[in-house]
Amino acid sequence: MSLIGRGLQRIHPNSQKVVFQRELSKIIRLEEFGLPSSFDETPQRDSRGSICGNDVPVRVCGSVVCGEAERICYPSMIPTHIGDKIIFLGEKPGQVADWPHEALPSDWSPVWAVTCRSRKQWDVFFCGTSEQLKTGYSADKPVGDRSSVKRWKEVLWVRRKITVPPEIRDVRRIWDEYVRAARNV
Amino acid sequence: MSDTLIYAMSTRGSMKLEQFNELFRRVYFPSLEQVEESVEVDVRRQIVRILDSLGYCEFDFDGRMVYMCKPVLILLPVFGLPKAALVGARSPALIKKLKAAVKARRNKAVLKYMQHSGVNAAIPAALCIEAMDVETIHEIAGDVRIACETSWPAAWALTNISSSLNDIRQSLSFESRAEPNWKRRVFSKERLVFSGYSKDSAPSFLAEYKDPVTQQLHHWLWKDGSAAPVGRDWGRYLFLADEGVNILLYDEKLQKLAVPVTVPLPCILARAVSLCTGTAPSLAVTCPKRIGGVPPGHSIQIYSGIANVIVKLVASKLCQKLIYTRFEIDRGGVLYA
């Protein structure tokens, strides 16, 4: 590397020496850019989508709603769109629903949704509450008939080697607690 | 997918529309001679719609300006673990910081690159943080020094605050007006496009007039000889609602919503459905059979992850009856319903 080239590398790793003609050269220093210090100029829109001033009570800027909008709680739903075949598992052994062959549970809330990606691969999604994340698995008596308890165990324990656990470590730890519990059911 | 355009735009807080067009051309069509102007304009319009609906920037067409929105993590309306998408301006340094902040909390959070459906080189990569709780998302936003909005999902908030067609209808002032002698096109409820050819006998119609001096488009909704100026996006839905034409297709099982490309959703509702996943809608063409009010072989945009409660609210705001159907898209991108 030439002396100039080595010097450039010290200035910035992305610096390049551009030779325009045989004897004329120019050093272009490439630097990472920063974001503007303020985005105060960005206009806001009213509920119709027209650009408005700050005097409008409810406004939208990009994706954010600002102003005095009444917060309406978003209803949580059971995820039925994540696969064609989903097995929902509850926190108690025996709480299992093989959707769409079986109806969605009405007397218990699913904690896990296990979807079939292929015959040899199942994916796990947490679909419980924040409370269930905090408490993890708490040993509970089985409910339902013997076959339901067997199916609950099968999804958790028997298929554990072909089931891809959740990516987040703390969630995976809770999944592992369920798997261990299923072993002893 | 590429972040080049959004990075270039993010270097400035605002720019003139002409500067954006030039930037777009330089980033995506470096050798301009090879691209037909009409193709470039079509692609650019599509990108503008998507960037706007994903909340990256605000396009002020009247002021002919483009403004970047501040970077913010917004909550997605999903089940289970909270997920937040990064929208607004971004830089390589910001992405680096975000990755580091998530890595520092690897027990509690992961960073995911979400796939945009369809292939579109101009749309920036959709980044999403999945975490154990919203507090973790706030901590990450704090580390990166960006805003964080988790009090309610952005899609749900936007759907709720959006005006409805009835609000728009009530604000219209129909007056007996003389029709301008400017170039006119009329919106066709059969073909869902503005067309130069129209039957003069219809008592109600939506007309588009082009000012010969400024080239600005004006839209008037006509009813029995009286007319009211109306925005183009709301105007199309007003006309279709008056005519009883339903064009929104919904697959409840897959939670996908199909909207004809020629009848895009009004701005706030378009943002609401786009921010259900934070990804761009995919494009398809309907099968050679009419589906509700959607003509055969018509281009449609398909939005994913649209929960039942959101789509019902969107449809009711637009006075549309949802057409419930099952979507099957073949390899050629043809939607059979």
Describe this protein's structure:
- The complex is a heterodimer of chains A (185) and B (337).
- Chain A folds into 3 domains: 1-32, no CATH class; 42-69, no CATH class; 86-183, no CATH class.
- With 185 residues, chain A is an alpha+beta fold.
- In chain A, strands 8-7-9-10-11 form a 5-stranded mixed beta sheet, covered by helices on one side. Chain A has a two-stranded antiparallel sheet with strand order 1-2. Chain A has a two-stranded antiparallel ribbon with strand order 3-4.
- In chain A, helix 3 (146-158) packs across helix 4.
- In chain A, a hairpin with a 2-residue loop joins strand 5 (58-61) and strand 6 (64-67).
- The longest helix of chain A is centred in the C-terminal third of the chain and has 15 residues, at 169-183.
- Chain A has helices at residues 3-11, 130-135, 146-158, 169-183; strands spanning 16-19, 25-28, 44-45, 51-52, 58-61, 64-67, 86-89, 96-99, 112-118, 121-126, 163-164.
- Chain B is of the alpha+beta class and 337 residues long.
- Chain B folds into 3 domains: 1-151, no CATH class; 166-243, no CATH class; 246-336, no CATH class.
- Chain B is 31% helix and 26% strand.
- Chain B starts with a helix and ends with a strand.
- The model of chain B has no long low-confidence stretch (mean pLDDT 91).
- At the A-B interface, strand 5 and helix 4 of A face strand 2, helix 4, helix 6 and helix 9 of B.
Can you give me a brief rundown of this structure?
Chain A is extended, with a radius of gyration of 28 Å. Chain A contains 4 helices and 11 strands, in the order αββββββββββααβα.
Low-pLDDT segments of chain A:
1-11
Poorly predicted runs of chain B: none
The rounded Rg of chain B comes to 21 Å
Give average pLDDT of chain A, whole number.
85
Number of helices of chain A: 4
Order of helices and strands of chain A: HEEEEEEEEEEHHEH
Number of domains of chain A: 3
Number of domains of chain B: 3
Relative helix content of chain B: 25-40%
Largest sheet of chain B: 7 strands, mixed
The total beta strand count of chain B reads 21
Number of helices of chain B: 10
